[in-house]
Tryptophan-rich sensory protein (Pseudoxanthomonas mexicana), 249 residues
Amino acid sequence: MRWLVLLLSLAMPVVSWFSQQGVFGPTNGAISDRYPTLIVAAGYAFAIWGLIFLWDMVFGAWQAFSRRAATDPLAGIRTWAAAGFALTAMWMPVFSQQLFWLALLIIWSALACLLTCALKLSTARITAPGLTAWAWAPLSLHAGWLSLAAFLNTAQVIVAYRLLPTDAMLPWTLVLFALATALLLWANHRMRGNLPFVAAALWALAAVYVKQSGWRLPGSDTAAIVAVAVGLVLAVQTVWLRLRPQPRP
């Protein structure tokens, strides 16, 4: 399994490069522009994938070659990590082919896998601090970004298939924001203030504010304010959790 994790960590940036070259069809950015939503982030935010892929590859190499990686906590998340990496790589060509329902299922499944890794490692690192930089941090960052990306993808599916009004998107967008907030706060609480997870989420929310504050869609100004509010709540929760006494190993 450790070699599969390594190979899949390498596969993600390779598939991403081909996707951005238009090998699988229109690029993700081009498709996203066709279906504007009130939860979409500014384009620069997606540069975080470079850091995510790089750190995931470091994790893949470390867990394959390091003797310290032969621990019970890490053995318990390899399958989840492999599945999360595979699904992340799979999502890109599927989305380019505009198979939106399948892409939605894939991204939510990827989030479930990577969030499981982050939750498990957040507990394990209390007794095995060596997992922090090599495993907990990269997988938490990946999970944090997907926690917002999954809702962005959901909003795009709603617009693409006109499942809800596209001329008045604010009401159902607020519901998505509420659900995203609940997920972020619940996961962050379970992980006692997971800094990489929160950093990725705040990066995404800041980019949503940047995009929506200059957007012309009805309700975009409100969406921008809501994104800031969610970010502030998440940041305050993180500070509170980090200041609380941590359980001893």
Summary: The chain has ten helices and no strands. Residues 1 and 78 are 7 Å apart (CA to CA).
